[in-house]
Design a protein that fits this description.
two-stranded parallel sheet; alpha+beta; Macrophage Migration Inhibitory Factor; 63 residues; elongated; 37% helix
Length: 63
Amino acid sequence: MPFAQIYLLEGRTEEQKKAVIEKVTQALVEAVDAPIANVRVWIQEVPKENWGISGVTAKDLGR
């Protein structure tokens, strides 16, 4: 059973997250010939103050 874990900064729309789930699922089906019913995708949203880029939080960078 393929399992994809995706980390994203918070703030994406429901439609964007649905698109990620659909496209990652399709990519795994095609890449490893997995039955679509066996594919799992988990999106973990990370608060911007908990994501660091070059020593600065994403929130402080205005991301």
